[in-house]
Every structure is written in structure tokens, then in C-alpha cells.
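tool=predict chain=A
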Amino acid sequence: MEKIRKGDEVIVIAGRDKGKRGSVLSRVDAAHLLVDGVNVVKKHQRPNPMKGQTGGIVDKTMPIDQSNVMLFNPATGKGDRVGIRVLEDGKKVRFFKSNGELVKA
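tool=predict ok
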């Protein structure tokens, strides 16, 4: 079970965008995420008339390593570590390590 999933609110804890918050747009692979508004770079794009794309400089969101983000805990207002707990009915759920609350999914 992945501790950080698509749609989760995360906060960046290391790197150029430290302190920024955003939601996870997608998982690129096992270790990388696309986060909205984080790690945005300028990319020079050539025009492609077949696809109707104009040329110029565009903003592109690049993947960030999951070790550089923490799940945002709304109760504390900070990033928090996440654990996995098995309920009585055998269902796995994520919880915040600081206060034990379940992560809203």
C-alpha cells in the first residue's frame, strides 16, 4: 500500500520548492510524484502544426521524489509521517503518526 496517493495534499520538505503545498496529480513511478504547482520549469517548445501546438516557452510540471514531500495533516497544519494500520475487518487504512487520526481519502 502506498503512503502517498493521487489526490493527497502534500507539503514539500526539501529542495527548491521547500514549504510549498499542493495536491498530488499522479504517480510517475514507484518513487516519483507530480505535484500541482511544485517543481515547475520553463520548457522551450517547437511549434507542431499537425497537433495545433504553437511554439514558445511553456511551463511544465516535473516529477519530484516522494522522499522530499510529506502528507499534510490539517489538524496540526504541518507535514506528518504516515503509517498503515489493519482494522478488525481486515481493511488497511493510513493514519497520521503524530495524533493517530485516519487519513481522509
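The chain has a mean pLDDT of 95. The two ends are 13 Å apart (CA to CA).
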